[in-house]
Structure formats: C-alpha cells, structure tokens
Amino acid sequence: MFALARSWSLEAGIAGPTDRLVITARVPVGVSGTTNLIKVLELVHDVETAGGAGAA
C-alpha cells in the first residue's frame, strides 16, 4: 500500500522526490471508528534506500 502511494504520487506529479506523504487508515477497512494507522513517507529517503536518485 505504501509503495503504491509513493509511486502513484510521484508519477501523477502531486508529490516531488523531496516531499513527504502522510497516509492514514483504519483496520478493518469500512468499519466506522478512529484512525489507527498514520504513516509518514519521506520520499527522498525511500528513493535513496531503494537505489534511486542520490544513490552511490
């Protein structure tokens, strides 16, 4: 889910390689309640650790 959000946001041009994405979700999906997952993706970190831009 996180990799898909990262790829889609970069490909769609809504985020740049130095941006951060905040993803919220709840499990189980579709059940009313509070958010129980918050993930902050630092795109530049993800690109560097994946061997992309900025990698040696």
Characterization of this structure:
- The chain is built from 2 helices and 2 strands.
- The protein has helices spanning 2-12, 43-49, and strands at residues 20-25, 37-42.
- A two-stranded antiparallel sheet has the order 1-2.
- It has one domain (2-49).
- Helices cover 32% and strands 21% of the residues.
- The termini are far apart.
- It is α+β, with helices and mostly antiparallel strands.
What's a quick, concise take on this entry?
The protein has helices at residues 2-12, 43-49; strands at residues 20-25, 37-42. The protein contains two helices and two strands, in the order αββα.
How many DSSP H or I helices? 2
Radius of gyration: 13 Å
User: Spatial order of the strands in the main sheet?
Assistant: 1-2
Proportion of residues in helical segments: 25-40%
The total number of structural domains is 1
Low-confidence sequence ranges: none
* Most strands sheet: 2 strands, antiparallel
Shape: elongated
Number of strands: 2
Averaged pLDDT: 77
Separation of the first and last Cα atoms: 27 Å
Helix-and-strand structural type = alpha+beta
**Share in β-strands:** 15-25%
Element string (H = helix, E = strand): HEEH
